[in-house]
Amino acid sequence: MKTFSNLFVLLVVLSWTTTRLAPVHAQQDKFSVKPDIVYGHKDGMALTYDVITPTKNAKGIGLIFMVSGGWVSTWIPAEQMASTLFAPLLNEGYTILPVRHGSSPKYVVPEIVSDVKLALKHIAENASEHQINKDKLGVFGFSAGGHLSLILGTQTNDVGDAASSPRVAAVAAVFPPTDLGPYVAIDNPIREQFPALKFDPKKADQFSPLKHVSKDDAPTFLIHGDKDELVPIWHSEKIEQELKANNVPTEFVVIKDAGHGFDGEGNKRLYAGMLAWFEKHLK
């Protein structure tokens, strides 16, 4: 089975197939960057996110990106991400907030989930400073990042006082694991491949978005390849069924013959689908 701990790097490369972009330095007049905003600390280390804002036609709408592949949060300069992976979204006026969490192998999924929930809270509390609307926050991510996006979409909107708790208004999840139960089983070798899964299997449901679907969840866009061997398509199929059963707005796009990663045409469908979804639900 292939390892996708460096999935985020792969996606940056693949994003070039969706847009014909000038070099990074030539793109920087199109956006501004507030780097390394600290949203918390753990073990003496800072937890950070960036704020990347379009220079022109900014909508005042923030899209939070889960920087996570295999639950590893790879650091890449914000300027590079903005000029490649995020370019189609920035060009449409969205402000992008890449969130980094404590990474595997030191931290496991329950600790990582705590990080991204803390990041969401910090972003919502400081939304006016970032010139975004706290009531129109979108979240998106790929693979493990898709899992974390769905965690926020299914576990935040029904917690606490709706007037003060951070809320997610829309989610886009790309080939996301939605049920961690099969992965965290003690006898499953994937636990060794992805150390973030080395937590008590009895807690799997607590950190599986599929098990937390309810009627107040965020509208959710799903996209998955039908030949994905690492995260089989049933993960998206099952959560789509649960979302629809709870009358949560949902769209599911299947990329035929695609595995855990898309070709140029698949990426075009990915960006087009995400943009349409966020435009519909974050107006």
Query: Radius of gyration, Cα only, in angstroms?
Result: 17 Å
Number of domains: 1
First and last CA, distance: 41 Å
What is the H/E order? HHEEEHHEHEHEHHEHEH
Residue ranges: pLDDT <50 for 5 or more in a row? 1-22
Helical run tally: 10
Structural class by sheet pairing and helices: alpha/beta
Helix percent reads 25-40%
Summarize the SSE layout with pairings:
Layout (H helix, E strand, L loop, with lengths): L6 H9 L8 H4 L3 E12 L2 E10 L7 E6 L10 H6 L3 H5 L3 E6 L8 H17 L11 E6 L1 H12 L14 E5 L6 H4 L5 H4 L26 E6 L8 H12 L4 E6 L8 H18 L2
Parallel strand pairs: 3-4, 3-5, 5-6, 6-7, 7-8
Antiparallel strand pairs: 1-2, 2-4
Structural write-up:
- The structure is a single chain.
- The chain has 283 residues and is an alpha/beta fold.
- The protein has a single domain (16-281), classed as Alpha/Beta hydrolase fold, catalytic domain (Rossmann fold).
- It has helices at 7-15, 24-27, 78-83, 87-91, 109-125, 144-155, 181-184, 190-193, 234-245, 264-281, and strands spanning 31-42, 45-54, 62-67, 95-100, 137-142, 170-174, 220-225, 250-255.
- Strands 1-2-4-3-5-6-7-8 form an 8-stranded mixed β-sheet, sandwiched between helices.
- Strand 5 (137-142), helix 6 and strand 6 form a beta-alpha-beta unit.
- The model is unreliable at 1-22 (pLDDT under 50).
